[in-house]
Queue: 2 jobs
Job 1
Amino acid sequence: MHHQPDGVTFDVVLLLHVGCVVVGVVTTATAAATAARLRRLVGSSRPLPEPLRRYFRPGVNWAGRTVYGIPVFGFALVAMSRGAYALGQGWVLGGLAVFAALALVGEGMLWPAEQRVQVALSQVDDGGGGDVTVQTLECDATVLSRAAVAALALLVVGTVLMVAQP
């Protein structure tokens, strides 16, 4: 039985690993809440509030992409553990599987839906409107909201798995 790893470097990498999870949870929860708010307001006759428009300003959600630091720092922790952790352990493999599902949800549904909402709202703001309809915006906001909830659930499952280390 190996002892629990310690040392300043290990602790810093562990903090970075956990920090990526925390930022991922916060940005994903924010995306879910904001998408749900957009979905409620888009069909109403009222104009969308400025904070909502600002949230969906076009651009890449770099804060959300910090989740890619989770496996990077996780691999570093395994390498620095001096044998206490191994890639073949069930909880490590489970964490990798959860992260793979998280990446699929993020890249396959969450961030593309977020991009579509950004484009649609920027077209409306520019007065072009194009083929943007209330139904399209509601649909994309629904996909975004549901994907964010799924990603949030995966982050919670991964966190429980890492803490429990069954």
Job 2
Amino acid sequence: MSATILIAGVGNIFLSDDGFGVAVADRVRDEPLPAGVKVADFGIRAVHLAYELMNGYDGLILIDAVARNGPPGTVYVIEPDLEALKDPALDAHSMSPDTVFSLLKSFGIELKQVYVVGCEPADLGDGMDLSPAVAAAVGGATDVVRDLALKMLAERG
């Protein structure tokens, strides 16, 4: 496989701001990216994300709505501590990103770099539109994701 970095948008497009990751992944997909980067929308299919990551990626940029008690629309870049993860819960219907990472770890698959680009949601209720604050953050988050991917590739030489 030629791609070494996976950019993965996750979230439920039917729960308003939870669709942030999918919206950003769709926008990033339209950006010119160098060889070695793959962009995909995984929506709520965390199991498929886990399977995809078993294909030999070195790094992952996961895009998702992330509640951290900041103002709605705030974009965060998080480097999760993958060593601190516990054993995975094996309920495929509620697999969070942490569960996916734990599952990969239990299979002996290690990602060298993982970033989560998250956005503080304003509304996670039923609806297919992002709130105004989160919709306004999509462009900036797209730039952050692209810049992270380029940084990760540069670090690989």
